[in-house]
Each structure stands twice: as C-alpha cells, then as structure tokens.
Amino acid sequence: MSSDPPFRILPKLVDNTRDFWTGGAVGELRFWRCQDCGYYIHPPQPICPVDYSKNLAVEAVSGKATLASYSINHQNWMPGPELPYVVAIIEIAEQPSVRLTTNLVNCPHDEIEIGMPVRVTFEHHEDPDGDVYIPLFEPDRSV
User: Fold this and answer.
1) 0.85 cut: is pTM over it?
2) Short-list 72, 127, 129, 142, CA closest to 105
3) CB 102 within 8 A of CB 136
C-alpha cells in the first residue's frame, strides 16, 4: 500500500487563495477575515459582505469544526481517494456559516454522525507551481 496521497486536481495558487491552500505547511487552516467586524469570508471576496469593509486579512482558525452533512461515495468518477470515501460538509467552530466541502478521513463509516466534532488534517501535494495542502477533516477525539 502506497503512502502517496491520492490523485487530486489541484487548485491554481493565486493571490486571494494561496494562504488557504498553503497554510497546511505550518498546520494552519486560514481564511480571509474582516478586520473591522471580525467576519470570516469564504470563499474569498474583495469586500466584507457584512459591513462592506475592504480591510481584510488572512487569519488562522483553530481547525476545529462540526460535521454538518456527509455522503459516502461508492462511485469511481475519476482517479482519486480509495473507494468508498466520505464527502463531508463541515462548519468551522469560529463561525458556523463558513462551510467547507471536504473529505472526512480516519473514521469508520459506521461511526460517522451529523454534529460530530472534527478537526483539520492536511494532505500534502507537491506541485511545480507551489505545494498544496488539502484541508481534510477527521474525528476530534479530544472533546
């Protein structure tokens, strides 16, 4: 069994998403945040949707989240994670309105529950344009 990460179509690293896709290098899940009202913005936008401020900066969050929904995928649509795998929607602890579609890993399928606490882990992919760290989530057994 290979320890190489599964095939994934990697995102292009551009100015407004680079910090999100590379934060895993230092173990950080990062989002844009309004520096005036504190609202986390994902996906990135040039202006805060709450107070219309342009005073935005990238900040790390705790990496803790809640499983909002999931599906167990049994169809091999393309090369990628080993079947079956879990497609999950998670809500970050700091602001549940920030949701990510991701994969739930390191969890037996019969133990998955909506509302379960999860935490981020990163899948490293080397890329000539810059390494990418895909944020995945696993059960948070510390709670």
Assistant:
1) yes
2) 72
3) yes
